[in-house]
């Protein structure tokens, strides 16, 4: 029987019982954790952003795509009407392998410990899964925005995602300075993205834009955003609350990718560096989900669930959290990216 890897939480690396009872403050603390923006721990995702399909069988979710509406024509009585052609295509989202988070807790440490670790350990396992899925969902959203137009059987099925680029030779701080000029450029780019969405007939309700905290600071230099004559309740400078800009509900995140991701499943990889092959996303828009046209979707075989098991042969308690989810692009015309490039 193979040995497990039990967590010796009372050890400081040299003394196996270094953290055993001294004087207990009364609270087990941990550093602030990365937030799950579109994938909330304990749930299957924010349905205002992500389309969801729980499956009982099969490995993927098919979604048909219809081509443009047929153009009407004048008719001469007596001529036979043979029917117009509506072009059809499809997309699929494939479910991923099991994603597992686990920890083994030794019984001797539980006997000696004067503080509870089982509940916080279990919380950390589930939260770790949610954060992993959250990062994948955001990268999938960027991939949707970067998707090219689809032409099938000679007809344009859709115009692809929506991207607004701005040059910043040294990255986001060069593209959008913390000045009125930088704030005006930022707002203009949001307005341009909104225009692109309008031209794709994306509904104006239910538009969300995720931005880094730095751009909230940039936005503080735009007096019109905070002017109470125009915004009676949505934006408030004193509380740093950004509600609506150019029709987008603003959400601040630290999870927009900035590196060249080359590991993990191919569909979640991508170059997200400002001086890379494509550029760095500094704003990600999700739109259309409330109208049944989400930019991305999730196929869910197993939601986030947990197991606690006493392993009497190893004198440990084994904790496991797992999920089985696949993410993919859906209505890519409902995704948008604000992008910074070096040239």
List keywords for this structure.
single chain, 343 residues, alpha+beta, four-stranded mixed beta sheet, 16 strands
Quick structural summary:
This protein is of the alpha+beta class and 343 residues long. The chain contains 6 helices and 16 strands.
What does this entry look like structurally?
The chain is of the alpha+beta class and 343 residues long. The chain contains six helices and 16 strands. The protein has helices spanning 107-112, 118-145, 172-175, 180-199, 213-219, 223-226, and strands at residues 50-54, 60-66, 88-94, 99-106, 150-152, 155-158, 162-167, 208-211, 244-245, 248-252, 260-261, 270-271, 280-286, 296-311, 316-329, 335-341. The strands form five sheets. The protein has a six-stranded mixed sheet. Strands 1-14-15-4 form a four-stranded mixed sheet. The longest helix is centred in the middle third of the chain and has 28 residues, at 118-145.
Helical fraction equals 10-25%
Would you tell me the structural class of the helices and strands?
Answer: alpha+beta
Cα radius of gyration in angstroms: 25 Å
The count of strands amounts to: 16
The major β-sheet equals: 6 strands, mixed
- Note the gap between the termini: 58 Å
Shape: globular
How many H/I helices? 6
Strand content: 25-35%
| Chain-averaged pLDDT | 83
Taking strands numbered 1, 2, ... along the chain, how are they ordered across the largest sheet? 7-16-13-8-10-9
Q: Could you list the spans in which at least 5 consecutive residues all have pLDDT below 50?
A: 22-32
H/E element sequence: EEEEHHEEEHHEHHEEEEEEEE
